[in-house]
């Protein structure tokens, strides 16, 4: 179960949101941004976004994380309601230290999946239990999931979340992330 810790208004470049902070059972804190009224609503646009310090904060071009985050916030701010669940699981769940080590292995020619496996780590170690709990906390009846990742959809549906629609987030590749995106498509099944 999750516990609401705090909430406040959060004006952004993309609209007025409310920010909620929750703790999960492992005492890890996560943020949820909500635009409009989502409680007991149907077809709420929802983005599950995993933390990416290098992309979200520093603007790294090795991935499309920042572009996906900003595209999602812009879209949500234009809707009557919506939710962004910011999951604290850096580097597809392997943590910052291992993610930067993976970057070094990628510099030597490995792809993003191979770099994780070379370290003895899973290709994707993310968990979405917290997101399920948040959606249930707000009693959302159905969501429009903003994702390219079929694993997210499958996990949510198998845990009782009704998905009425998938909203793709298509970001134009750059010379720096094209191979990364191809790997996500070819080895991880992302819908790009």
Written account of the structure:
The structure is a single chain. Strands 1-2-3-5-4-6-7 form a seven-stranded mixed β-sheet, sandwiched between helices. Helix content is 37%, strand content 25%. It has a single domain, classed as 3-Layer(aba) Sandwich (Rossmann fold). It has 192 residues and is of the alpha/beta class. Helix 4 packs across helix 5. The chain contains eight helices and seven strands; from the N terminus they run ββββααβααααβαβα. It is globular.
- % residues in beta strands: 25-35%
Number of strands: 7
User: Poorly predicted ranges (pLDDT <50, ≥5 residues)?
Assistant: none
**Number of separate domains:** 1
What distance lies between the first and last C-alpha atoms, to the nearest angstrom?
Answer: 33 Å
| The level-1 CATH class | Alpha Beta
Order of helices and strands: EEEEHHEHHHHEHEH
CATH superfamily: GTP cyclohydrolase II
Structural class: alpha/beta
Q: Give the averaged pLDDT, no decimals.
A: 91
CATH architecture: 3-Layer(aba) Sandwich
Oligomer: single chain
Tell me roughly what share of residues is in helical segments.
Answer: 25-40%
For the biggest sheet, the summary is: 7 strands, mixed
- Strands of the widest sheet, in order across it, are 1-2-3-5-4-6-7
What gyration radius follows from the Cα positions, in whole Å?
16 Å
What is the name of the CATH topology? Rossmann fold
Counting DSSP H or I runs of 4 or more residues, the number of helices is 8
Categorize the overall geometry: globular
């Amino acid at each position: 179960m999750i516990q609401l810790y705090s909430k406040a208004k959060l004006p952004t470049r993309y609209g007025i949101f409310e920010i909620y902070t929750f703790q999960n059972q492992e005492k890890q804190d996560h943020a949820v941004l909500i635009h409009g009224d989502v409680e007991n609503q149907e077809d709420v646009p929802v983005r599950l976004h995993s933390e990416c310090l290098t992309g979200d904060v520093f603007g790294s071009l090795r991935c499309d994380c920042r572009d996906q985050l900003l595209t999602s916030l812009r879209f949500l701010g234009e809707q009557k309601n919506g939710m962004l669940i910011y999951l604290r699981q850096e580097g597809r769940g392997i943590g910052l230290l291992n993610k930067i080590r993976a970057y070094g292995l990628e510099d030597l020619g490995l792809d993003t999946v191979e770099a994780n496996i070379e370290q003895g780590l899973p290709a994707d170690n993310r968990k979405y239990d917290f997101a399920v709990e948040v959606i249930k906390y707000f009693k959302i009846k159905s969501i429009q999931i903003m994702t390219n990742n079929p694993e997210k959809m499958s996990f949510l549906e198998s845990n009782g979340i009704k998905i009425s629609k998938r909203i793709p987030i298509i970001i134009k590749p750059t010379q720096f992330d094209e191979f990364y995106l191809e790997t996500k498509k070819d080895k991880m099944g992302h819908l790009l």
